[in-house]
Amino acid sequence: MFSLISGVSRRAPSSAYAAFIGRISAALPATSLLYNPATSSTNMLEQKRFRWTKAKKKRYARYDRRQQLLQQGKPLTKPPYYFPKDTPVENADDKQHRILVAREQDEEYSKQIAAKFAEQQSRPPVLRHHMMGIFMSDRVKKLFDLQNGNQKEVVQAQKQLGMELFQLRPGDTGSSAVQVVALTTRIQQVQTHLTKHKKDKHSKRGLDALYVRRRKLLDYMERKDFTSYRQVVKTLGLTRKA
Fold first, then answer.
1. Of 70 and 20, which is predicted with more confidence?
2. Which residue, among 176, 173, 177, has the nearest Cα to 156 in the 3D structure?
């Protein structure tokens, strides 16, 4: 086929395109966008030519395939994840039942945390420099008391006690819940620092980075282990800001 507009040889269009041109030529008058021999050469160059794109080819091929299925009496193919409108929706549990189950789980977990905390309180007090399990006199024990330690040692001891409440096994430092507790301890420490040094912009930037790290860990726990996520959020008193 030779194009009068571009003056170059082009491949003949498919049957779907020919049918499309036929429908448009029947609907439009003779002086429309289609070629008319009576028009001058100037108007012929100004005419618009329909572009035969890949998307248009796929659309007309899909239309021809559906028409063939209708003619053969076969059912039309459905899109993926298609559900008919009359499909009944079944809920496993109603809202009230879910609230009761969540409340029972919270009470059970509160008892577990209280038992772990009581077990920590029954232990001997934490001493500086990991001087635990060693027999020493009262005078020497006072030297290693946390009251005589600096702020870093106190925060480290509190962080260790908090991580023990969420450990899945002895010595666990990598689970998501334990990491959230460690980040929360660090966040509280930086917040205390910023209350005294309000113009410390570098620490403020580091605090924002800690917020993002904790938020990502909580999002991961919410996707993978929602029960642990609820337990950590309830225990630490965290709230999601809109």
1. 70
2. 173
CB of 44 closer than 8 Å to CB of 4:
yes
Tokens of 119: 């077990």
Distance of alpha carbon 11 from alpha carbon 1, whole angstroms = 6
Summarize pLDDT for 33-69 with one digit per residue, the tens: 444 455 444 454 455 556 788 888 999 998 998 899 8
What b/e sequence results for 161-199 when a residue is b if at least 16 CB atoms lie within 10 Å of its CB, and e otherwise? bbbbbbeeeeeeeebbbbbbbbbbbbbebeeeeeeeeee
What pTM was computed for the model?
A: 0.57
Q: What is the pLDDT of residue 2?
A: 43
The owner of tokens 């635990």 is: 132
**Residue 162, CB-side half-sphere exposure with 13 Å CA sphere:** 20
pLDDT at position 32:
44
Residue showing tokens 């189950």 = 101
Tokens encoding 72? 């053969």
